[in-house]
């Protein structure tokens, strides 16, 4: 799927990376993994898969589409065992083919294992070239298979030790779940760019990309997996291994701004509470002359509630999201792409007609969807539309597992705020600053923060090895 098709299908937003889930020590491991993945479906809608084990054999099923597309004919009943891992995918690295669906299984002379990955490596191409020169044969274009081959190259021995050595060679954002016959391993990258949590369900141990998955399966959140930590889960319990030196934490801010579900807790902050605070700061620092406040569903509803509380303006449901539009709806012409936003969103004329609307959204990427929503509200009779964005201008693509437009397609990378305002046809437009964004987490201006804000600042926490390799340059470090 090319960039035009992705924009038509998914809208003008960065796409969720992927979601992973793992459970060890439960007789219904595969079924619980399925339900955990249902809670994580927002993180990937292009492919899904589950691998389970009964201690002597591994079972797997995966395919393209939503979970309900992939598991529709009793496939779960064939996934036996007490442990399982699962994955929902959006293709940030590698095309959307059945070969790239995860988990990816590898059979070696030492053992069989399966791996699923949320994130993106910045040195995957560099490593793949090395591995191919050493004789490795790749079946997919996903960077997850690079990690699998690195583990296999470590040879025989304790799997946790092999994984710990292998992941020291990769760089970027990654949250991994790895399953063998009698153990489950969870790994989080040294910067904590991608989220991962540990939970408990009776005697079983559970890991997932977000804590909302625990609520769905009835598990209790124990803690976040620490950056640079490997969890080795067996019948003897959970063993923690630090595979990388402690670094300054750089968790992805956009998890809180847009990606994560509002009912999740990510690295100690509740997502809904953070978004409400972002809205309050917007109202305090960037007020608008409005009569009502409307949030773009669903990710901006919490911020809109915070804006309304702080400003004293009434919060209204002025946009209705049609949740039953087919995920694969492709608009082949500009006319039908314009119609697409009307199929996904409807303005409530009785709410917005004759009103000055303050429209709250979490981000503007290309600006095309924002313009269509502004036009939608005006068409329903809004007198004015004042747009407020609960994040800073999005000026640089992510290299750690979020599928974003190229920099020359990002409207804020090429235009001033006033130029963006004119492009989206709003009466006014303002964004949060990076300092104001960090204030929502309790960090005053100028203080060190444990976040990656590279999409707003162009300051990346790692070197971008593959990017410089693609440009024929020596890899250089461009961020601190």
UniProtKB/TrEMBL annotation:
InterPro entries the record matches: GATase_2_dom (IPR017932), Ntn_hydrolases_N (IPR029055), PRTase-like (IPR029057), PRTase_dom (IPR000836), PurF (IPR005854), PurF_N (IPR035584)
Pfam families attached to this UniProt entry: GATase_7, Pribosyltran
E.C. code: 2.4.2.14
Reactions it catalyzes: 5-phospho-beta-D-ribosylamine + L-glutamate + diphosphate = 5-phospho-alpha-D-ribose 1-diphosphate + L-glutamine + H2O
UniProt remark on cofactor binding: Binds 1 [4Fe-4S] cluster per subunit.
Domain of life: Bacteria
Cofactor(s) annotated in UniProt: [4Fe-4S] cluster; Mg(2+)
Positions annotated to bind Mg(2+): 299, 361-362
Catalytic residues as annotated in Swiss-Prot or TrEMBL: 18
Alphabetical keyword list: 4Fe-4S, Glutamine amidotransferase, Glycosyltransferase, Iron, Iron-sulfur, Magnesium, Metal-binding, Purine biosynthesis, Transferase
This protein's pathway: Purine metabolism; IMP biosynthesis via de novo pathway; N(1)-(5-phospho-D-ribosyl)glycinamide from 5-phospho-alpha-D-ribose 1-diphosphate: step 1/2
Binding-site residues, [4Fe-4S] cluster: 252, 398, 452, 455
Domain Glutamine amidotransferase type-2: 18-236
GO biological process, one term: purine nucleobase biosynthetic process
MF annotations from Gene Ontology: 4 iron, 4 sulfur cluster binding; amidophosphoribosyltransferase activity; magnesium ion binding
PANTHER family in UniProt: AMIDOPHOSPHORIBOSYLTRANSFERASE (PTHR11907)
Record-stated family: In the C-terminal section; belongs to the purine/pyrimidine phosphoribosyltransferase family.
Role of this protein: Catalyzes the formation of phosphoribosylamine from phosphoribosylpyrophosphate (PRPP) and glutamine.
Protein name, per record: Amidophosphoribosyltransferase
Organism field: Alicyclobacillus acidocaldarius (strain Tc-4-1) (Bacillus acidocaldarius)
